[in-house]
Amino acid sequence: MARTKTGFVRRRRHKKVLKQTKGQWGTRSKNFKRANEAMMRSLWYAYRDRRQRRRQLRRLWIQRINAAARINGMKYSQLVYGLKRAGVELDRKSLASLAVTDAATFSKVVDLAKQSL
Fold first, then answer.
1. pLDDT digits (tens, 9 = 90+) for 18-63
2. Which of 19, 76, 78, 80 is exposed most, by the fewest CB atoms within 10 A?
3. Number of domains in the chain
């Protein structure tokens, strides 16, 4: 029986890695070993930063809500507590979009929270 080498399988794997690192600088896009290191790190960064993006967006929403709430004479924590007591189930994303796009509706929400306190 003839000996089988990994020629086709290895070439296919190398091509896949080199294709993923196409825009990298220097040997990170040409040398398989360096390209594989770069690809592994970039995939890990992508995984990590998908989670960090959610954290950063939540921080941004809270800052926007707080700024709009202070314009209406209330603090963020008081607003959230008042909305919870009033039974309003608006999440921070929708509250932030209300604060940015529709200030009149947001002020009504703030008034509702003030009444429940």
1. 999 999 999 999 999 999 999 999 999 999 999 999 999 999 999 9
2. 19
3. 1
Query: Is the separation of the CB atoms in 56 and 48 below 8 Å?
Result: no
- Count other Cβ atoms within 10 Å, centred on residue 110: 22
Collapsing DSSP to helix, strand or coil, 101 comes out as helix
| End-to-end Cα separation, the chain, in angstroms | 84
- Its domain, for residue 84, covers 25-116
In the block, residue with structure tokens 């999440």: 91
Helix 92-101 crosses helix 32-71 at what angle (to 10 degrees)? 60
Residue 3 has pLDDT above 90, yes or no: no
